[in-house]
Amino acid sequence: MNFDSNCIFCKIADGIIPSYKIYEDDDVLAFLDVNPVTYGHTLVISKEHFETALSTPKDILSKVMNVAQRIGQIQIKELGAKGVNILTNCYEAAGQTVRHFHVHVIPRYEATDGFKLEFNTKEIKYPLVEVMEKLAEK
Ligand code: AMP
Ligand code: ZN
Q1: pTM of the entire structure?
Q2: How far is the first Cα of the chain from the last one, in angstroms, to the nearest whole number?
């Protein structure tokens, strides 16, 4: 079992640091984000330390996503959310601040709920054929 004694989410998973826990099983823990971007913002983590989703074993990844899905459903039912963003940041360039795999489950209420996740169309036109060829499974 990977455990990093300097990792805040490992300490939360271990119970050394308290959290507003809403779900727990052998592999997965879900708790409220202490700096919520909307009402009900929740984090779902693997109890074992993996740096990002990219290095998390598939079975654990899938367990975490199953819990994230369930929490999103509950946020709609119990909090009256009108939508949910489920996302995970991998590495600092993508906005990751805690280097322990976690999934944000962010209930959305309306466009004015204060949280902005923008997919702006860029002026730059990327060469899509070149990108497709690089990304296609070899
Ligand atoms: P990310 O930027 O994707 O790495 O997200 C890390 C999230 O962890 C941020 O939204 C923080 O507000 C949250 N966070 C950091 N420390 C704690 C903590 N002790 N309890 C709950 N959430 C935390
Ligand atoms: Zn950790």
Answers
A1: 0.96
A2: 33
